[in-house]
């Protein structure tokens, strides 16, 4: 009890260090559906509609049932890798922001990787240096790492943004679309590694990056191993309950209920696609005192894997979400991730 109280206070303090969070106006975001595959039963989003929630629900139900089409991807027609390991390629989705339509990644080659490489997807609002230390740790274990910038992060952030709000916000349709974009970008990153001759490819994601990594692994057959660092079965529940998304919840309140939001965001949630992980070697990591990915959600994720008989390994961090990045917990987390990936690839 004392440990829980102490870690929760620490998590609140770490969270409160950031003062640039904005409560954005709620929007169903129907205009973002134009780039999504059309469902047979969806109304025409070009004209007025009396019930925008029904449009999003129709898309979401279709996307879950046809996820191979929803997350369909081709390798980029061209990959631009410079002498410093900075990789650029076109995103498969064109958004209204030109900066976001170019994917950025950094390649950290191991000296003797034996054809083994990992796509690394950092947490929400990570800056350009986020997880670089983890990539170098992977290098020491003989793994090449490709650190991927998610949509609307670092180099991909338009001048109007202070934070990467457009990937998780109270604009419901945009959140759905941009998270889909992140998965397609990750699949193209896997394609780059395959073109480079890597035959054993894994993916490692943290927090939001963990959710997107599982969606990628579930739909990208070239990914053989997944390390999921902070977990929840449902995207909406983390936003609704989590410490880091209180300002997003404030924008949603009064406009949509949790059950509806859970259905709309089901295509970007791990839960519908867990059975697709049966042939992927998977590590699940959660933090005992997490307020951002609440503990009951992480435990329900693990319980669902167990109930379905999906093979996995489990590691539990004795800290919270933000404190995972603090000494000594970041070293413990890095050790577990590296050990699993180096043995599984």
Provide structural commentary.
By secondary structure, the protein is an alpha/beta fold. It has a single domain (2-344), classed as Rossmann fold (3-Layer(aba) Sandwich), CATH 3.40.50.1820. The protein contains 11 helices and 9 strands. Strands 1-2-3-5-4-6-7-8-9 form a 9-stranded mixed sheet, with helices on both faces.
Widest sheet, order of strands: 1-2-3-5-4-6-7-8-9
> Nearest-angstrom radius of gyration?
19 Å
Shape: globular
CATH superfamily: Alpha/Beta hydrolase fold, catalytic domain
User: How many alpha or pi helices?
Assistant: 11
Low-confidence stretches: none
Number of distinct beta strands: 9
CATH level-two architecture: 3-Layer(aba) Sandwich
Mean pLDDT rating? 94
Please give the domain count.
1
Please name the CATH topology: Rossmann fold
CATH class equals Alpha Beta
Q: Could you give a short account of the major beta sheet?
A: 9 strands, mixed
SSE string, helix = H, strand = E? HHHEEEEHEHEHEHHHEHEH
List the helices and strands and how they pair.
Blueprint: H1 2-16, H2 52-65, H3 67-70, E1 80-81, E2 86-90, E3 102-108, E4 116-121, H4 132-140, E5 144-148, H5 172-195, E6 200-206, H6 208-219, E7 223-229, H7 235-241, H8 246-252, H9 258-264, E8 281-287, H10 295-308, E9 313-317, H11 329-344
Parallel strand pairs: 4-5, 4-6, 6-7, 7-8, 8-9
Antiparallel strand pairs: 1-2, 2-3, 3-5
Helix pairs in contact: 5-6, 7-9
Brief description of this entry?
With 345 residues, the chain is α/β, with parallel strands linked by helices. It has helices spanning 2-16, 52-65, 67-70, 132-140, 172-195, 208-219, 235-241, 246-252, 258-264, 295-308, 329-344, and strands at 80-81, 86-90, 102-108, 116-121, 144-148, 200-206, 223-229, 281-287, 313-317.
